[in-house]
Amino acid sequence: MADNIKQNQPELDLGEQQRIRQEKLKALQEEGKDPFVITKYDQTHHSADVKDNFDELEGKTVRVAGRMMSKRVMGKASFCNIQDLKGNIQSYVARDSIGEEEYKGFKKLDIGDIIGIEGEVFRTKTGEISIHATAVTLLSKSLQILPEKFHGLTNTDMRYRQRYIDLIMNQESKQTLINRSKIISAVRKYLDGEGFMEVETPMLVYNAGGAAARPFETHFNALDTDIKLRISLELYLKRLIVGGMERVYEIGRVFRNEGLDTRHNPEFTLMELYQAYTDYHGMMDLTENLYRYVAQEVLGTTKITFNGIEMDLGKPFERITMLDAVKKYSGVDFNEINSTEEAHAVAKEHHVEFEPHHKKGDILNLFFEEFVEEHLVQPTFVMDHPIEISPLTKKKPEDPNYVERFEFFMNGWEMANAYSELNDPIDQRERFKAQEELLALGDEEANTTDEDFLYALELGMPPTGGIGFGIDRMTMLLTDSQAIRDVILFPTMKSLPNDK
User: What is the value of pTM for the model shown?
Assistant: First the structure.
């Protein structure tokens, strides 16, 4: 479509073309035809509706509206192409059908103008479904020039900064972001059907807990106090479980003061849910069913392809412990390692970098990241994490060095994180204390003690399963998008000089 934009535009520099467009607008306003005074247009169909229902609509009058992306003037008759939410459609515009004055006005329209077309649905001699216009209405004048080429790696920075242009020029990008909305709707539909209640919790918090991440900090002027942006949804949702709301979920933005790469954006969309009277096995079952449902609802299949690799959500997801996964892919059996010193030694032997304060469980996790993650392409639950990296999770009764936790992996990426939630307030206080010690050692991602949350736990929280899903990564996989910025409408970008 972008290749058609040059048609009928004079070979003038950008500034001159913009000046001409402004003069056209001024002339329209002087003639009493200012498009910006129009407040509505009674659109009856989208382009795809006309095409999909041609047999019913042939010969009938419809009204479509959208951006004119191409125009071909041939004397007394012309063709133009209108792009709307659902696609594009051709219109045949003839002087004898719309009137001489109206036709003169049509010929003065520019690529990028937003117009309404009223006319009869027909099929051209070449077989293209089109609209034979009986009226053309200018609804908004485009005073800027659309770029001739706006696709591919050479324009990624502009695509992300000026997403509105990307949505106009790149229909694949537009469909990806439409599918993102459909994915979120499908998640809500599934959870609502399972009896979950959607809730909202604070974004501005005094204690940013629930995850190992560095928060953004700001100052609340009205109370003259420092405050943080939330890094997780967890601790408030658990308070609701204490309050008797047995199944709750939230889909919302969280903020982590971390780097930018193809899988990380400092603000991203997280979905967390908590269900009373179940455990992490219940969360595994829910995850399998949810992913299958969303894929089927949005894509029409449970088989997805990412970067040329097929992943089957219809088959039972693999379940493996972290110990067994590390043993399988690194050859190291951490069941045979009995001390922190031995763990440090085996890390040095296998060239795994670690910090002096890291314990055996931390080293096990580092081995997992180094040797295992990349192999977890098909849907896999990695279960039973070491207690050192899981401060909010219930211990395994048979081995208190490990917890009832899993991470869900696909394509080598962590897609979800789930627990049998810790509901022992005495144990939780000790875990917070250990986190405070890490914070004192310089770990900026460690949690601090949340006294109000501990008080809630002391009132009593039922056995509970909880899970967090990264909506952005889910969207990446289901839309075959290679970068997280491709699935966020307005991703975080480095500021330009004019932004400051």
Answer: 0.91
